[in-house]
Amino acid sequence: MTVERYGEEVALRPAHPRPAHPRPAHPRPAHYETADVRIDKIVVGPFENNAFVVRCKRRGEAVLIDAANEHELLIPLCQQVGVTQVLTTHGHWDHVQAVAAAREVGIDVGISAGDADMLDSYDFVIDDESVVAIGDLRLRTIHNPGHTPGSMSFRLEGHPVVFTGDTLFPGGPGNTSAHEQASFETIIDSIDRRLFVLPAETLVMPGHGLDTTVATERPHIQEWVDRGW
What is the mean pLDDT of the chain? Predict the structure, then answer.
């Protein structure tokens, strides 16, 4: 049985524990798909985090953006579709609950130096303006401090797609009032200089909730500054 959540069809979760058998690799339509890439969005955990699998269709290689939660769902899926790395948008606990399980099965986990102390363990550091190869695909990293010191976004080169974690959402920036190292001024500057320079048609895929576009959000930045959040 399926239900609609966040505009896409997802499997209705039973009240009893899931069976031990993994789900099929692609039980639902892709969130985004072209001839060379497939992106699947999996909503997990009590805060309904978006985890994204980005897969090169020509080479069969894939990465997971945010091993957020529900390792019993994410890890079998990652194994089925060839995920070899986890790219962490930032270190807040709701985005990293499946990190240990990913590393246990040999999937390397990366995080920025600015947020590395939020993880018990990881395998590599993600630097600003670096390029992550996924078969024939390339993800370029964008350092977006403000929500956390080391928050990272990932732009899919050759496609109008950017994964923004908790930096940019429909209607404004991520929360900067609940975390000691967060800064509203920093996140606004980061969004303005690093994300709003992307093409207007760029799809923004955030760490929670629905997608938006640069064109939709960019005209409202002064409103966000004026309201202070």
Answer: 90
**What value does the mean pLDDT take over residues 64-81?**
97
Specify the DSSP class assigned to residue 220.
G
Which residue shows structure tokens 């390029």?
A: 131
- Look up residue 177 and give its two tokens: 């009032």
Give me 129's structure tokens: 């303006």
Alpha-carbon torsion (24, 28, 34, 39), positive or negative: negative
d(CA 75, CA 42): 12
State both tokens at 15.
Answer: 């009240």
The encoded tokens of residue 136 equal: 């024939």
Residues 25-39 pLDDT 10s: 555 799 999 999 999
- The residue with tokens 């980005």 is 54
Query: In Å, how far from its chain's centre is CA 114?
Result: 17
Burial of 166 per CB tally in 10 Å (0-12, 13-18, 19+): buried
User: Mind listing the domains of the chain with CATH numbers?
Assistant: 2-13+20-227 (3.60.15.10)
